[in-house]
Each structure stands twice: as structure tokens, then as C-alpha cells.
Amino acid sequence: MKKILTIAALVSLSPLAFASTTIDFEQYSMYTQIDNQYSAQGVTFQNALELVAPDYDYFDFPAHSGSGVITNDPNDPIIVDFSTPIVDLSGWYADPDGVIVTAYSGLDGTGTVLGVFNGAGVIGSDAEFTITNLSDAASITISDVGGNSDNEIVDDLGYTVTPEPDSLILLGTGLLGLVGMMRRKLHR
Questions:
Q1: How far is it, in rounded angstroms, from Cα 99 to Cα 116?
Q2: What are the b/e assignments for 45-59, b being 16+ CB within 10 Å?
Q3: How far is the C-alpha of 154 from the C-alpha of 128, rounded, in Å?
Q4: Partner residues linked to 28 by β-bridges
Q5: Which residues contact 128 (CB under 8 A, 6 or more apart)?
Q6: pLDDT tens per residue across span 25-53
Q7: Distance from C-alpha of 15 to C-alpha of 56, rounded to nearest angstrom
Q8: What are the residue boundaries of the structural domains of the chain, listed by start?
Q9: Ranges of the chain whose pLDDT falls below 70
Q10: Tell me, what's the pLDDT at 75?
Q11: What is the DSSP letter of 134?
Q12: Which CATH architecture has domain 17-167?
């Protein structure tokens, strides 16, 4: 019984240890400037403009899913800040020049560089970018290789956050209490 309770506790904790989210950019209309619309998910943007097919050149810059994407407008790069640090990042892009995705320890694309993805030019399809095993990144930048604004699209931005240490302690304490109560009932 002890082994079963231990396994149950570990299995119940594992999905809670890291929370993954994907933003698909399907919620807003054409030419919406994206800034704090995703703040409830712990994410804010700078230099991100919503584009929705068929009202942009979606043949050359296709969405990975659905019809909504963001582009680097009015300036390059797109800056993404996370309220809870992230450990993994992924997304899809199209850009004839290629992209550079950089993860930073500080907000607004500042601090120590924690990871970089250099993506080749892609037009007429999309390509995936990933940066994994980050050490608590607080922000990322997504840049056109040539520094050109309104030259790239980004879709399905996915990230994995680490939980607050206090949340894990509280959850672990609650599970230990539950295991103790179950154990006491079994021995009676």
C-alpha cells in the first residue's frame, strides 16, 4: 500500500510541476496591437500586431493553425515578457530573412542571454523554433535577421513555466497530510 501511495503522490505532482500554455493568436481582429491582452496568462507583448487571414499575404506567410498570427510591427523585435519565468519555449514562424529568438533573464529583453535560436528564411510555409532547458527566462525577443519590421509572422507561441516554490510546498504538504490520514485509517 505504501508503494501505491508514493506512486500516486508522484504522479499527481508531476503534471503540476510544470504548466504548459500555447497562445494561438485567434482571439483578436485584424490590426489589433497586442500588448497586455494575454496578461491573465502571465504574458505581455511589445511590437506585436495581429494579422488575420485572408486580409494579409497569408500565402507567403501562412498561419501554423487557424487564421490569426502576429507580426513585428511597428518595430523589430517582438518582445515578450513572462510574469512567471519559463523553462521551455516553442512557436512557428515565417520570414524570408530568417529569425533570431533570444531568451533573457530580465524583462524587456535585458539581462543574461539564456538561449538563442537562429532560424533560416522561410516563405510560403512555416517553421518551428524551440529553446529548451532555459534557466528561468523572464523575456524573449523574436527578431527578423535583417531587423526589418512587418517582415515576420509568429503563431502558436508555446511556453512552460515553473511553479512558484510556495505553491509546490503547499501542494506537497497537503498531499503528505492526505497520505498520513489514509495511512491512519488503514491501520485502524
A1: 10
A2: bbbbbbbbbeebebe
A3: 10
A4: none
A5: 90, 91, 92, 93
A6: 999 999 999 999 999 999 999 999 999 99
A7: 39
A8: 17-167
A9: 1-18, 164-184, 186-188
A10: 96
A11: -
A12: Sandwich (2.60)
